[in-house]
User: Fold this.
Amino acid sequence: MAEHRLRDNADADREMNIFRTLSKSPPPAPYPLQHLFDYLGKRNALTAEQRDVSDIRTLEAEVQQHPDRPRSLYLLAEALLTEGRTSDALQVLQRLDALSGGDYRTELNTGILLGRFHQNEHAMRYFQAALKANPTSDDARYDLAETYFQAGNDGAALEQLLQISSDGQKQASDLGLAGEVYAHLGQYDEAVRSLNQAIAAAADEDQYYVSLALLRLRAGTPGEAEKIVRLGLSRIPDSAALYWTSGLVAIASGRQQEAETVLKRRRG
Assistant:
C-alpha cells in the first residue's frame, strides 16, 4: 500500500505477488507428540530408499488433498529430484508456476532448487524469469552468473556479474565467483585481485584462500601459493581444504615427504 501511494507500482505489484503466494501455504499445525513418536519409530525402521518413497507418497497425498498450496508442490518437486525423477519434478514445478503467478521469490527459489540438482538449463530459465520480475535483484543475477559458470559459459557469467550493483560486487561471494570466472577466462591479474578482495571481505572462508593458492600454483609460483595457504591456516587452523591445498603446494615444490604428512593429517 505504501509503495502504491509512492507510485512505485512495479515494486508494489511484485510484493503483492509474493504475499499472494505465501498466503496460500498456511503454517503447519503442531504435531501431537504421541503421533510424532509413533511416526518416527516407524520411519526409523525403513531403509533410506523406503523413506524416500514414503516421503513422495505422503507429499503426493498432500498435494492431491490441497493442490493450491505452493509449499507442498515445492517439497514434492524436491523429493522427486532427489529420487532422480526429473521429468516428474518439472511437471510439478509447472503447477507451482501457475499457482505462484510469476512471484519473484518463487522463481528464484525454484532456480536454486534446480541448480542444486545440476539442472542448469532449467535453473537458468527460472533465474531469468526472476530477473524479469525484479530487474534490480542482485541475488537473481548472482545465481544466474553462477549457473552460467557451472555450465561452462564463462563469458555470460562475467556479463551478469558486471551488472550486479556496486554494493553487491563488494560481497565476498560475488568477488569469489568473479575470481573463478576471470581465472577461467585467462585474466590472471583480475582473478588475483578479485580473490584477494574476497579474502579481505570474508577472512574466515577457506574457499577463497584455496582458489587463490591454486591459481598461484597454475601460474607457476608455488612460493606465493604457500604464503596464501599459511595465511589461511592462521585464520582457519582446522580447514581440511587448506591442508589438502598445502599438500599440493608441497608436491609442486618437490617436498614429497612433507606432502605425505600433510595429506595424512587432512584425512585424519
Residues 1-133 form a domain with the Serine Threonine Protein Phosphatase 5, Tetratricopeptide repeat fold (CATH 1.25.40.10). The longest helix spans residues 48-65. The mean pLDDT is 87.
